[in-house]
Amino acid sequence: xxxxxxxxxxxxxxxxxxxGMTGEQIKNFVINSHVTDFRQLRQALIEIESRNHERxxxxxxxxxxxxxxxxxxxxxxxxxDPFERELIELDIAEYKLDLGKFDVSIRQYDHELEPFMNYVxxxxxxxxxxxxxxxxxxxxxxxxxxxxxGKQAAIDIYANGRIGIGNMDSIAMMREEDQIYAVSIAMxxxxxxxxxxxxxxxxxxPQIDKMLTDGEPPRFPTxxxxxxxxxxxxxxxxxxxxxxxxxxxxxTDKSEAE
Length: 258
Known about the structure:
Elements: H1 6-15, H2 23-31, H3 37-78, H4 82-123, H5 127-134, H6 138-160, H7 165-172, H8 176-203, H9 205-213, H10 233-257
Helix pairs in contact: 2-4, 3-4, 6-7, 6-8, 9-10
């Protein structure tokens, strides 16, 4: 096992790290930021084109630096001036450092490209089918903006109780029929979102009541260890306390009945 030292951490970051956007991040917040299949595909293809172009440029830059290193190494063999030799050695060291950064960038682009490629492969069986689906049509664009404005208006309604000025102004620019569709989607989504959140809140009522009436000083939740079971630690603690109290009450009732 390699010891955790500052130098080893720096070496690993320079040579091995390739962290960019994760698959979940890309799926949820890049592709799914669009509300129709047509626009999701278009976004995936745009992201693929952009990253593929940048990856190719990085590969060319890497080859260019590799040639430059060989050129400098040959020059170093015939250079007699000590100061000039030192400068050449520094340039070689800098270019080799750049090669490591290029390798990290290439791995990052490869890592980020894969989720977009997977999305396309999952939904389309051929390049022809993909190309046809990505073609612009007025009807697909119309449906996208109805759905998009409906979603944005729904978030306004949930957060503020009404559609915000900006979104309402945009909706008002659409055809009357499309305005009705957009507002209908907004009411559907906000209403069902409210109902779903209300159900979640009701399911937590025992824990909230426990926190309000336990006589303890105020406690605030944190996100420490949230990845363990996707519950806040304070919520788990209150759940356990409530469960123990219920068991104690059931035991007391049973004893009194006997």
